[in-house]
Amino acid sequence: MSSHKRTIIEAFSAAARTYEDEAAVQVRTAERLAALALAPPLAASPRVLEVGCGTGLLTRRLLAGSEDGSFLVTDLSPAMVEQTRAVVRDRRCSFRVMDGELPDVPPESFDLVVSSLAAQWFDELHESLARLARCLAPGGRMAITLVGEGSFAEWRTTLAGLDLDSGMHDYPDAPALAAMLPTHGHSTVTSDRVIMEYNDARAFLAALKAIGANTPRAGYKALPAGSLRRAIAAMGSPCAVTWDVLYAVWEK
Ligand SMILES: C[S@@+](CC[C@H](N)C(=O)[O-])C[C@H]1O[C@@H](n2cnc3c(N)ncnc32)[C@H](O)[C@@H]1O
Fold this sequence. Notes:
By secondary structure, the protein is an alpha/beta fold. It contains nine helices and seven strands, in the order ααβαβαββαβααβααβ. Strands 3-2-1-4-5-7-6 form a seven-stranded mixed sheet, sandwiched between helices. The longest helix is centred in the N-terminal third of the chain and has 15 residues, at 24-38.
């Protein structure tokens, strides 16, 4: 495993207890994604694989919306798996630490593969989507969300204006994500832009840390304190930051 991936695990594991204090976008996304994922037609008693469960925001909504079925609930972070296990007490669920990029399950063994706001952390998004698609039985559905290209534009632009690097990852836009889905099958990709208001950019960065999403691009060198202060001041107070959430649904 790469040291970058280990850093991602540490950041999310450290955030397992604080995650839901700052998860307004994640709650909205889980609600919308659960509705898309469970929309008919879906196999009766579906076999569901969830990748990157975090604290179980999506898990709980899927369980509430399903009468039966079986749910394999997974995350790269052991602490996140334990957090979800602790809050989701449901006999339909089993839990496993698993890297969603390398799904360790038999091919064609699920009717629904779901993941909310985890896949932007994949090293190889395109290849991983193909591997996840292979987990689906014919007629199955993959329904995922991830952070898209328009996210955090205000912070990136402010730093670029000061000739500073934000260290943020490059995220796909909707057409780029659509092009990464397998060509056999039917897919739709949409974008939901949510503008969040923070007291200032320091509060925005603290919110990212509280949800464990503070690991910068591999190889990024943190800004000197003075540069960070200038960037925070340039963002103003309060400040608005866009979250661009991409929803992809693919039917096999
Ligand atoms: C922003 S949280 C989203 C959690 C939850 N799905 C939600 O909607 O609130 C991202 C989650 O993805 C997990 N994650 C990151 N990379 C992963 C990978 N390669 N495989 C599985 N999970 C991963 C993190 O540990 C974290 O729990």
